[in-house]
Structure formats: C-alpha cells, structure tokens
Amino acid sequence: MRLLFATAEVSPIAKTGGLGDVCGSLPKALAKLGHEVAVFMPFHRQAREWFAQSGAPLEPALPTTQIPWANWAAEATYLRSTLPGSDLPLYLVANDHFFDRVQIYAPRADGYDDAIERFAFFCRAVIEGCELLGIAPDILHAHDWHTALLPVYLHSGLRGSGPFRNTRSVFTIHNLNYQGIGRATQFASLGLHSRYWAPDGVEHYGEVNLMKGGIIFADQVTTVSPNYAREIQLPAYGAGLDGVVRSLSFKLTGILNGIDVERWNPADDPDLPSHYDGDRLNGKALCKRALLREAKLRLRPKTPLLCFISRLVDQKGVDLLVPVLGRMLRAGAYAVVLGSGEARYERALAQIGAENEERCRVWIGFDDALSHRIYAGADMLLMPSIYEPCGLNQMYALRYGTLPVVRLTGGLVDTVVPFDGTNEEEADGFGFSATGSEELYTAAWLGMLNYRDSRVWRRLQRNAMAADFSWDRSAGEYELVYRHEV
Ligand code: ADP
C-alpha cells in the first residue's frame, strides 16, 4: 500500500515527546512489511538546526509555491530528505513565518497564538505537495490535532481530486487532551463549507475543535494503547470529547506504540559507558556507578537509585511526586531527575535537589543522551502519570532493566505487570491506582523493599528485559487497520 504520514514531529529531527518517536519509527516498520511510505512534516527551526548539525542531505523538492486557501494565502517551500535511518522520502514544508519558532509549539513573536492557522496551512501544503509531486496515497495517516484537518478535507471534497481519489484516512490520537481549539471566528480560515460549523463537524461548544474533526471524519481512528482506547470513552479521561469518541467507538482501535529497539538497546547503546543484556547485568552496575559519579552522589552499595525523566506538566503526576520525593530519599533511596516544563515544577524539583545534595540530583533541561545514561544506571523509574495515552519511558526503562513504578492508567496498564508478591514469573514493575502521593510512596517503598532481595529483583529485571516492544508487532496491527480488517 502507499501510505502518507502527516505529522508535526519526527524524531530525531524535531520532537517534544512520544508523537515524534512514533512518526520517526513506525514508517520504517511499515516499510519492512512492504509498504511505500512517505512522510510530511513542517520545517521547524529545530529541523533546520538538526540538518545543519547532522549534515543529512536536504534538497529542494519543488519551486516555492503560493498556496491560496479560504480567505488567505501563504507560500510553501518543499524540501526533500529521507527519514533518518531509512531511505523513505521525507518532505519538509518550510515557511519561516509559521515554523521558524524557538519551540515547535511556540506562539508568534508578538504573543498571538496562531496554532490553528499554521497547522491549517501545513495540512493544505501537504495536499498541494501531493498534487504537485504526484503522490497518490491509499492511506493518509494523520496524527493528533495538528493534522486532524486532513481527514476533514478528504471528507469535504478532496476525494474528487486526482491523487486522493482512492485515499482513505486514518487518524491517530496520541494525546486527547491537546485538541487544537480556536475561536469561532477562526473557522473561516479553515476553508470548510459552513455545514462543518456544527456539533457533528468541527464545532464544539461554540469553538473550533480540530481534534473532534479528525475523530468524526477519519475513516478509521486509532489511539496508542488498547487501555487508553477504553479510557477516552469515559468522562474522566475524555477531555470533553468522550461522548464523540463513544459514539464512534466502532471505528476506534487501540494499538500499543513500539519503541526503536535498535536505538534503545543496552547491549550496544553508544551513549552508555558500559553495555549489558538480560543474562549479563554486570554492565548495568557499571552504568549505575558512572551515573552516580556524574550526579555527584556517593556510591553506597545496596542503595536503590530512583529516576524520573519527564516533561514537567501536570499530566506526568509531578504533583504526586513532589510531596513524597524527600521522604523516599529519607527512607533510603537516591534519586536523579531529568525534566523541563512548567516553571513551578522546575522550581519545586530543583529545590528538593538543592535540599538533598547528598541523595538527589535534579537536571532541568532536555538531554537525550543523558536520558539513556539514566535509564541504564537507575534501578527504578517513577511514572505517576495522571493519564498516559501509551507512555514510552516505561518501555525504555523495562528494556534497560530498570523497574517502573507506575500509576495504572492508559498504556501503563498494557505494558507493566505490577509485582504483588505472588506473580514473580511475570511481574516487571510496581503499580498503584488512586491519584495520590501516598499511593505513589507506598508503591515506590514496595519497590525499595524488594530491591533488597537480589534474587527476586533479578527475576523481575529479567522479565522486564524480555518484553517485546518492537515496532514490528504494532506495525502488523496498523496494517490491519489500513486494510480495514479490524
Ligand atoms: P510524552 O510524549 O507525553 O512526553 P512519552 O513517554 O510518550 O511521553 O515520551 C516521552 C519521551 O520524551 C521519551 O522518549 C523520554 O525519554 C523523553 N523525554 C522526556 N523528557 C525528557 C528530558 N527532559 N530529556 C530527555 N528526554 C526526555
């Protein structure tokens, strides 16, 4: 099949989280199954910097093109490269006014949030690009609200145009809480017929809601774990769209994300000071030693090293962690934290680090190589997410023999088997359900207690490292969705 991915992020070119990881990896796994895949993404400033630094080839794909749309027009310049680590075509849509920003999702320099317009422009540029480049996809696979307009455009008449005659759309929800909400007056800039301004269109309680449009008009909808597919049909997790999701659940499938098992492999990860696998864990002890040195923490045998690597936003449960992290340290743990995000969380965690210099190191920032060294060197990963569509951190941790302590929500339920004292044969982490600091503390404490029993710990580590999170498994499930066989 000919597949077209349209996405705001592609790892390692420009990413803020899981969306980028998925769109950097899944196309390659689908290509292995014999599909033709092309990817479109915006030429963000991060992308410009990545190409400048990596020296990867980048060439003009088309002359600069004026894209007239609805009541406005803008210029797109199309660049061509290949998806890193593959020979799959990658097209980057450049327009400095829209995409040359400090951060991928930053508003305009004057503070105006033009997110709706710039991603409407991107979707329109994808369509125009396909027409000019002669790309006629069987499947147009859109990801999250940024490209949710593509299924809407397809529904609104695009199927009448040459390359899209036989195109069906698949829309993947990576995070339902970011919906692409705009004011009613912005509807005109989308270039849709007025019949789409309705509760069964892109209108949601008087506002523009692009996520809603993607869900309603895509032929198939997927989300990134089976459990999240169930949860988003409930008011508690539906972020106001649970009714829409429920009514269309017949076309919803939950497919667990995979991870790039080549990039994330403790046996030959170039970012690690020492290598190991499930049968030979000595290298992990050396990684821990090196990490403690890097964190300026004194080596003490038998001390469990906890870690937390995350965007610092309320979704990730920082509010649960902050009140009890100090107590975990006093109870005998070390901790390393790597994160960036909301200033109040950065401050609170930095303060805990400053008050516990002997036992805790807090790095504020985003550092991919350091994250690898932490996954390898730590004993446990704390992941008290309030909600978690899939979550990648816990899968990286499991692969590196670092046992996750998770709140049992979303994809964490599908990926971690909590140890309850009786299921040593299959358990690979620790879990809790209620959204409370005390529950997190108790689960982490259970982990710390079990850490003392090296036989049990080894067993759980081996279970963790044996789990299969490769994309090959998930790609097969996407194939069924593309073929309309689920
Ligand atoms: P989300 O996409 O919601 O942020 P995921 O668990 O799906 O959460 O993906 C998070 C990804 O971002 C992982 O690859 C994780 O290692 C990485 N990450 C998060 N924060 C940092 C950070 N401060 N430095 C390096 N990597 C980070």
Describe this structure in words.
The structure is a single chain. The chain has 2 domains: about 1-260 and about 470-485, Rossmann fold; about 280-465, Glycogen Phosphorylase B (Rossmann fold, 3-Layer(aba) Sandwich), CATH 3.40.50. Helices cover about 35% and strands about 20% of the residues. The chain has 17 helices and 18 strands. Helix 14 links the parallel strand 17 and strand 18. Helix 5 packs across helix 6 (about 210-215), helix 9 packs across helix 12 (about 370-375) and helix 10 packs across helix 15 (about 435-450). The radius of gyration is 23 Å and the shape is globular. Bound molecules: adenosine-5'-diphosphate. Adenosine-5'-diphosphate binds near residues 21, 338 and 339.
What would you say about this model in short?
36% of the residues lie in helices and 20% in strands.
Number of helices: 17
* Total count of domains: 2
What is the helix fraction of residues, given as a range? Answer: 25-40%
CATH architecture of the largest domain: 3-Layer(aba) Sandwich
Rg: 23 Å
The global form is: globular
Category from helices, strands and their pairing? alpha/beta
- The strand order across the widest sheet is 3-4-5-2-1-6-7-11-12
Indicate the mean pLDDT: 96
The top level CATH class name of the largest domain: Alpha Beta
User: Superfamily at the CATH H level of the largest domain?
Assistant: Glycogen Phosphorylase B
Sheet with the most strands, sense and barrel status: 9 strands, mixed
Kindly identify the CATH topology of the largest domain.
Answer: Rossmann fold
- In angstroms, what separates the terminal alpha carbons? 17 Å
Regions with little confidence, pLDDT below 50 for 5+ residues: none
Strand percentage, roughly?
15-25%
